[in-house]
Amino acid sequence: MTTLQNRPHTALLVVDVQTGVVAGAHARDAVVCNIDALVARARSEGVPVVWVQHSDAELEVGSDAWQLVPELERLAGEPPRPEDLR
User: Per-residue pLDDT for 6 more than 90?
Assistant: First the structure.
């Protein structure tokens, strides 16, 4: 996953790839596809995937806009767990 040697604490951070955040983003589909490929590669190489979801008045936790885009899937056990965010 990394070209740097001896990095045992490497992780992939996936930040704010939420329906309400990326809806109007330039090249949204290509960006999401690239993120999906990175997530798959990280998982295949045993690199932890950590998901970060922004929340505020317009992106309330649990709302449709707050959800990850449907093309991406957080696996059980990948932090943070949705139940920890409520």
Answer: no
pLDDT tens by residue, 30-67 = 999 999 999 999 999 999 999 999 899 989 999 999 99
Query: Contacts for 67-74 with beta carbons within 8 Å, 24 or more apart?
Result: 67/18, 67/19, 68/17, 68/18, 68/19, 69/17, 69/18, 69/19, 69/22, 69/32, 70/19, 71/32, 71/33, 71/36, 72/14, 72/17, 72/32, 72/35, 72/36, 72/39, 74/49
Are 55 and 18 spatial neighbours (Cβ–Cβ below 8 Å)?
Answer: no
Does residue 79 have a cis bond before it (omega within 30 degrees)? no
Domain segments of the chain as ranges:
12-85
Fold of the domain built from segment(s) 12-85: Rossmann fold (3.40.50)
